Amino acid sequence: MESMVLDPSTPRDSHGGLRRRLLRLRSFGLASLRMLLGVLLGFSAVAPQVLAQYQLVWEDNFAGSNLDLGKWQAQIGTGCPSNCGWGNNELQYYRAENATVAGGYLTITARAESFGGRSYTSARLRTRNLGDWERGRFEMRAKLPIDQGIWPAFWMLPTDSVYGVWAASGEIDIMECVGHEPNRVHGTLHYGGTWPGNVASGGNFTLPSGTFHDQFHVFALEWDEQEMRWYVDGTLYSVKSSWWSSGGSYPAPFDERFHLLLNLAVGGNWPGSPNASTVFPQSFVVDYVRVYQDLGPALSNCLLVFDDMEHADPFANGYFLFNGSVGGGGIGSNTALLPPALGGSASLAAAFTSGGAPGYFGGFGRTNPVDLSGATHFEMWIQPDAGQDYVLEINLQDDDDGDNAIPGNPNGADDEFQYALTVGPAGSEIVSSGGWQRVSIPLSEFVDDNTYHFGGNGILDPAPTSAGGNGQLVNVVFALISLNGTPVTFRTDRWDFTRRVSSISGRVWNDADGDGIGIGEPGLNGVSVYVFDVTLGAIVATEVTSGDGQYNFTDLSGDAVEIRVDPSTLPAGSTSTYDPDGVATPHQFASTPGCAASVTDGDFGYSIGSASNYCTGSPNSVGPGARMTSNGSYGIGAGDFALEVSGVIPSDFGLFVLGSSTADLQLGEGRLCVGGQLYRLLPPLAATAVGGTSRQLDFGSAPGSFVHPGTTWNFQYWYRDTAGGPLGFNLSDGLSVTFGP
Length: 741
Fold this sequence. Notes:
By secondary structure, this protein is mostly beta strands. Strands 3, 5, 6, 7, 8, 11, 16, 17, 18 and 20 form a ten-stranded mixed sheet that branches. Strands 4, 9, 10, 12, 13, 14, 15 and 19 form an eight-stranded antiparallel sheet that branches. Strands 22, 25, 27, 28, 29, 31 and 32 form a seven-stranded mixed sheet that branches. Strand 6 (99-102) and strand 7 form a beta hairpin.
């Protein structure tokens, strides 16, 4: 936009994130913590969108009737004396009065009127020292003015100009349109040396039909360390990865903070002056401006914070309120009661009542249009008060007609999707006396609700129509229905949309030889393994090993977790020989799988035997040795297989033992030492008495749960005579079994 010195150089400033669907989770000393887990919503394959790379960090939706002076500064005048004509021989005088806010839009109006020695007036706004960013995605939805000599622009300038005056410190033009080309916009970089040693590079986009004045369009720039990308309505039309500055080395000048500008110029070197065909007034109408930034690999594509409640006045941040048929209430900021994690410094308090009558009390919601591409779950904190019993209807309202709005009175063009969350003393989902509880609801479990907002396409759309989708989320609305007439009062915090498609899987095995290598060794079934969320400080999922000692956790967000084995569910005498991050942390390992990642090597090895060695004092110290027989199929996956021992002393105690090599067991009657490399009893099986002097070990339908085809296992039964004292042991004869496929 500029072609001469705009701002003098200033000192540099410092600047810079299948199981049961309901699980009861406990941590932080709270009575209960819940998470709802379920089927994932499929990923939407569209053009690169904000959720896939960036998180919303700043926006202006132009609500209310005045320009937000906490976000924008109006620049006044002609640029004189240092930069008359704003460096381009522009003809207008910029005034604050020419930028107005009404009906959810910012309108910058250019008028043919005399003021300050000029024949035209208009407006120029900037975010300098109010909103300054280094890299990110910068987006505007707007309808452009067109005509000879009209020049609307959405662009960026350096806040600190550390590499020198224009253009050594750079300029980024996100969108420029010269009115005599009403169907074309331009995206341009300015860099190099100070004027006149500056250079520029860029591209342009031409509509296939119509003009940019006919309807709203979305103009965006994605800026990362080594590349700039320009979009119109989600279509990528220009990429630049080469630039330079006389004031510093690459990636200078685009490695410093920049601020946004919106202006409508009249005349100038590029568009030329208005002529007799130019119509005044001209209007540059802006629906919204948004800034997204990449908050780091741990969050990319995994998390979109819809609202963190860090605001003193909800109604100044897009909230609205409505009363019901029998009651009403209100909402406000709360700084005294905060969740144990992710809560920041404030939560949102809701208080509704009817004076004792049950029914629909009303509710509240927030308007915040967001692209949900790739999201799978809606998550939040809630802290309900004790003794209350109600249904909290969570409604997601999405746009289907491309106007980026949901009307208060339904027009049949948009959708509403609902999930009914029950809150009550019995706690079928949320316990009303349970303290802070975290909820995660799959988006696939929100159902199309036509009782109020009817029509639409019946699809919970992730992406806006401007990006090739069917529409995007506009409002999140809570409606409150009391079941017993008691007040409905609660706190809520941190509403997130997350992408839960990561997984962690592994195997728990019997490390019979203690070498930490599980090849050819049997898995351990019936062992509890769980996921501990480091951020929440809570268990969020549990599995029990099956098959060949396997576990598999899905629906994970990609955040930092610990996979933990519950030692109480391991066989007696188990000793850790291997876990993925070392046996110095037995029974657990830490993992941050990242978004849409799959970790498959979460294996745990255990040496299973008695806690200490038991040895016979002499071969068969008292009485004869028992005899072992077997019956059933020895083929993996076929039939029943059982071991039976006869001739034992009725008052003894004893266990079956087994090993994977003949060195582990003594085949035949004689001395035996039971050490750490032997099973004392193969879990989860149990020995049963089949007669006064008999014991049986039944493997049920398949030995394949613990052995592999072609392996040989050796079995024995040992027992202690009650009359023989602590070292009076007897043995059965040994039995060697080779299992077939």
